[in-house]
Structures
1.
Amino acid sequence: MHPTTFISLIFIFTAALVIGGLSFLLPERIKKRSWLILTFILILTVIFFSIRPVIIKHETKVATEHLELHLKNMHPNESWVITDTDEYRFKNVTYLHVIFDNEPNIVYMYMIDGSQIYQIDMWLFKQTNETDEIEPLHDERKL
């Protein structure tokens, strides 16, 4: 679970407990309405946080398919591995990491925004020798 998700859940359930506790001080008819609203909010929270991983997984799958097509066009006759980042939030933009098989020491970061694909960053995954200079072969930012 992502830390911000955990904090959100703590905030929602704490607010529900406080409102539920304060509802005991209210008149009977208002107390019933407040309990009904609290129940509704808690059910929506559980549904949202249950469905959210499925939606994010689908968004990542679609972005991966777009990136696969882009890489096949830009770098034919090559192979690679695509991994997603550890950001599990709803966003319009998806970030994916690519490691090419002929260049295993460099990780390329791609941003997928709808149908637009940009290579936004790259970094050395691990370096065998400090004096080795590695020239990236798949740098799309200079094109």
2.
Amino acid sequence: MKSRVWTTIDFNASGMQSDFARVPFSSNSSAYGWIPVPMLCVKGGEGPTALFTAGTHGDEYEGQVALRKLARELSKTKLHGRVIILPALNQPAVWAGRRNSPLDGGNLNRVFPGNPEGGPTAMIAHYVTTELFPLADLVIDLHSGGSSLDYLPVALARAGRSDSQSEAIRCLLQSFGAPYSVVTDGASGGAGATLYAAAEQHGIPALTTELGSGSTLSENGLAIAERGLRRVLHDYDITPDIEAPETPQTRFFQVIGPASSIYSPSNGFFEPYAKTGEKVAIGQKAGYIHPLDDMLAQPLELTFAAAGIVTFRRFPTLTSVGDALFGLMAEAGS
């Protein structure tokens, strides 16, 4: 079905154009209104198209800031190809500073490929899938740990649906150059309903990231995003005149499945004993949950069920049953 989202941008026209992906939304205050999702298209000569997004979750800021800075730089740069940037993809969530949209409760990174007749979140996903993916030769969707997670600076990608796509994805990860590159099936985070998984389904090399923790801006995570985007644009010959930072040696890992993650067994206060990046062993103490209502009750001890490196841990101390507390990864091939 045709997307109901529209824009004044002509993606085939040369030069820089700035407008919105206009998402129809009928509210109490505006019967025929639309939600403005900022979008920039910069097109030069012949070459590939890079689609860069951030703000898929509204409380993750490293990608949002990095793309705004990149947009200003591209206004002064000669391009071979095209760059499409949406720095606040789930604009309602960005306005609210929340992970999910306050308009329909939608988690944009869990509804792909979307629905043109759904709520605003599903319509945005459908627009990206049906209108922007067909234009793109590579996709980067920038994320961070947001309000709930302390995360290692990682780039994540799916394995690819063919040998050639797998190699293209691996090249994209190497070009972006995050300290850790993780190949995942997405089982612990949305499976096939994420933006980068949907791009894989369309045969497009794609990656996502986790670059910060808490509802703040990580200086290190922002720098990784900025350097990675510049390297990708240079390596794919889209901005050959932009000096690319030296490519660091990224380390390849694989996610240890959600069965080896630790989830809170009770409501309470979370006392962690391990940090992100720490190597842990089977049976090692991970922390405690201190019950809220009985101050004399013994805290619940948490232990790791698998060996690996701590990829993330919960950021807030107040914890409810089912909250993800720790996730692990292991060296690829181990």
3.
Amino acid sequence: MEHAAVTIRPGEPGDAAALAGVQRAAALVAFGSIFPPDAPKPTLRSLQDGWEEVLADPAARVLVAADPTVIGAAALRPEGGREGRWLLGRLYVRPDRWGQGIGGRLHDAAVAAAAAEGAATVRLTVLEANSAARRMYERRGWRLVPGGRHRPHGPQGPPEVQYELASGSEWR
């Protein structure tokens, strides 16, 4: 199937519902073998609320991949109270578009946006068992943060790890 050209643009408040749909679709596929089968699934409403919050934050930067429909996104925020440190999160691409380089383009645009904001470092958190995402970040120069492993989903939930990318090392 041939697709229209993908553009990366700033997110807009009206994108929240579409972004929630992309995130839910990607999470259900990517995390299906990571979370227990009886774990609660994310709701579109809760995901949309999260995107509305990020899109309304004047300090945040949301990047949307569109063809012209929304097919992916990434979000950046300054790390609270830490000058020159930004957080990359919510990097999702619709599963039927995986393997087409869209996630990499969103990543690279997000890192460039952080650099333009004066970031010295960017951090992200990823599920430890999400090997595909971890490989993408590691190929792009991200380094595992020692001691950055934690379980935000409870003691029985899957652990997450933190990565960091420092300015001047592998900025893309």
